[in-house]
Amino acid sequence: MENPKENEMKVVIVSDTHLPRKGRGLPPLLQKDLMESDLIIHGGDFGTHDVYMEFMGYGELIAVAGNVDDPELQSLLPKRRIIERRGMKIGITHGDGMGKTTEKRALEAFEDVDVDVIIFGHSHIPYSRFMKGVLLFNPGSPTDKRKLPYYSHGVLTIGDTWKIEHIFYK
Q1: How far apart are CA 21 and CA 84, in angstroms?
Q2: Cα–Cα distance between 141 and 139 in angstroms, integer?
Q3: pTM beyond 0.70, yes or no
């Protein structure tokens, strides 16, 4: 009998690492998920090009630039991306800008295209909610929780169906 998990794709979602300024490195739980991932999505604010390269070392990385990324990353990465994996359309943006909430800016970044999920960051606040028929997902931050009780990242599992969840840790 076939193991249904063998047909699943594990996507690790992270944003706002702000390294090295906000920590000494990636938390062990995030490192474990990164090593087991089929794809990594980063919603911007790596901090430096070295941190971007560290993420690349874990596997396939799809990323966007955040507002505090260094100039090298700002020129290398787009502000918005759309990818498709196993029939699922995913929009990725950092969510920074002026006016409106971060969630509304993220949603507006993809108003011209149909996506199933929008991954964003910027606020460091874990968020998972449908708005206008699209799931908006902010993984929070694994290194800069601000006044929140937990650090976090996300895991998207794509198989016959898909599910997305936050992973919280101290």
Answers
A1: 33
A2: 6
A3: yes
